[in-house]
Amino acid sequence: MAKFDEGMESMLDTYIFEENQLLEQLDEILMRTEKADSILPDDIAEIFRIMHTIKGSSSMMGLANMQKLSHAVEDLFSILRDKPETPYDKEILFGLVFDASDSLKNEIDVITDDSAELTDFTQQIAKIRAYADVMKLSTESAKASLPKENVFEEGESDEVLALHVKYSDTCFMPSVRAMLLLRSLGSVCEVTRTIPADLDADNANDIITQNGLYIKLICDDKNAVQSIAKVAMDVVSAEWYENKAPQAAAEEKPAEQPKEQEKSQEEQRPADASKKEQKSSHSADKSSIISVKLSKLDALLDLVGEIVITESSVTSSPDLKALEGSLERFNASARNLKKLTDELQDVVMSIRMVPVSNAFTKMSRVVRDMNQKLKKNVELVFVGQETEVDKSVVDILNDPLMHLVRNAVDHGIEEPDVRARNGKTEKPTVTLRAENESGEVVITVEDNGAGMDHLKILEKAKKKGILRKPENEYTKQEALSLIMKAGFSTNDKVTEYSGRGVGMDVVCQNIEKVGGKLVVESDLGVGSKFIIRIPLSLSITDVMQLAVGNTELSVPISSVKEIFKLKPETLVRDTEGTELVMIRNRCYPVIRLSEYFKIPTEVTELTEGIMLFCEDSHMRACLFADRLVGEQQIVVKPFSPLLTQYNIAENGLSGCSILADGSITLIADVKAIITNIFGS
Amino acid sequence: MANDNTAERIRLLTFFVGGEQYCADISSVTDIIKIPAITYIPLLPEYILGVINLRGKVVPIADLALRLGVVGEEYDDHSCIIVFSVRGQSAGLMVKRVGDVIDVTEQQVCPNVNARSFISSIVTTEEGNFLKKINLDEITEA
Question: What is the value of pTM for the model shown?
Answer without folding.
Answer: 0.47
